[in-house]
Amino acid sequence: MASASLFKSSAVLDKSDFFKGQSLRQPSAYVGRRNAVAPSALTVRAGSYADELVKTAKSIATPGRGIMAMDESNATCGKRLASIGLENTEANRQAYRTLLVSAPGLGNYISGAILFEETLYQSTVDGKKIVDILAEQNIIPGIKTDKGLVPLAGSNDESWCQGLDGLSSRSAAYYQQGARFCKWRTVVSIPNGPSALAVKEAAWGLARYAAISQDNGLVPIVEPEILLDGEHGIERTFEVAQQVWAEVFFYLAQNNVMYEGILLKPSMVTPGAECKERNTPEQVADYTLKLLNRRIPPAVPGIMFLSGGQSEVEATLNLNAMNQSPNPWHVSFSYARALQNTCLKTWGGRPENVKAAQDALLTRAKANSLAQLGKYTGEGESDESKEGMYVKNYSY
Fold first, then answer.
1. pTM (2 decimals)?
2. CB atoms near residue 276 (< 10 Å)
3. How far is CA 229 from its chain centroid?
4. Does residue 265 carry a catalytic annotation?
5. Fewer CB atoms inside 10 Å of the end CB: C or N, the chain?
């Protein structure tokens, strides 16, 4: 069980909330989709965890902070290690994850960390539980709960996300281990349609996952990633994103998901990776905020954008542009490679490079913290941090 020293301000969870979610107050109600039905059909409840879910979501969505995604599967983590010449062993994965979570002062910029199942139960190289190290940093532990993408029969070579079977019992176990939020990634491909079947499957799967997660005390991150694959322009991405998010929120309401107790992890509205026309951060921000205003209820506390293969600097610039004007949400980040790429290369698997690698991680975390506040300038960035990280058909 994670340390109880987490969450010290009044806006975040206290000790009793962190460990005793089942003894919380009566659930709050939330009005879902506006249909001409009896009032009782509009009541949305999230079980005995309702108040805790809201507090957790608000704790993650605090000013100047975002999420560090370190939930790559062991196989994908192996690819990262291979890029710096390391073998994919548990000891090497442990060393890298220890480096990340123990970076001094990381909690100043990071409010939550998404972990892979191995990491949730793992200790650092010094024998301390990783969830306890995160707690000491005032970082809430999260967990990836989906089981990955598989081909969607009857579609245009598209995918669906598996993992609903057994999700309730797994979520309950993750909660007991110290996790307080979770992530489920499904994808939509523009070059392949997207077909109505793929969009509906993505939205329904996310809604069932969200309902099951809330029922077990975990704040669900809802992530229908619109892949960067393709030659399409930003207008086409915007069109598809509107379609996807309309479907997602329809099914969230159908499944009685409490909006105040979720977080979103959308893609930014950008052109396809192979599109010849590129857009400025201001244009990306304009399209993305337009999408949010048209599709996302203000009740949702946090919009934690994924980087989706953008360079470290590009992801930060786009986030900063979105925070140049007021909006009803906490518009922030949930980055993996866009936080860790330079850090990993700096480390190179060498113990003597740990401090330099942690400094690189903190540099990126601070840059995105400033971007969340709309104060990032982009000055002093290295050429390496401007290198794109797009991978076609990316999966982890």
1. 0.84
2. 8
3. 20
4. yes
5. N
